[in-house]
Amino acid sequence: FARILLSLVLLVLAFLSIGVLIFTSVRAGIISLGRNPLAAAAIHRGLLGIAFITLMIVAFTLIAVYLILIY
Q1: Distances, alpha carbon 48 to alpha carbons 24, 26, 56, 64, in Å
Q2: Nearest Cα to 66, choosing from 1, 2, 11?
Q3: What are phi and psi of 36, to 5 degrees?
Q4: What b/e readout covers 27-60, taking b as 16+ CB neighbours within 10 angstroms?
Q5: Which residues contact 25 (CB under 8 A, 6 or more apart)?
């Protein structure tokens, strides 16, 4: 039962941090785009970097939960 609870807490924390990360980066990107529309390419590159980071967090979290539940 402890492993299930630990994996649930890990999943909730990971998805909460991903939500905060995506929300703040999109908000900052929109504000930056409003201030400097010519920097759209740089803003898109930054958002793609954030998307890559979130995918890595999801992958790491799922692997960690899998390992916790298996062992």
Answers
A1: 14, 11, 12, 24
A2: 11
A3: -140, 90
A4: eebeeeeeeeeeeeeebeeeeeebeeebeeeeee
A5: 46, 47, 50
Q: Is 2 exposed, middle or buried (0-12, 13-18, 19+ CB in 10 A)?
A: exposed
Q: Which two tokens stand for residue 41?
A: 């390419």
Residues of the chain with pLDDT under 70: none
What pLDDT was estimated at residue 45? 97
- What one-letter code names the amino acid at 8? L
What is the pTM for the complete model shown?
Answer: 0.88
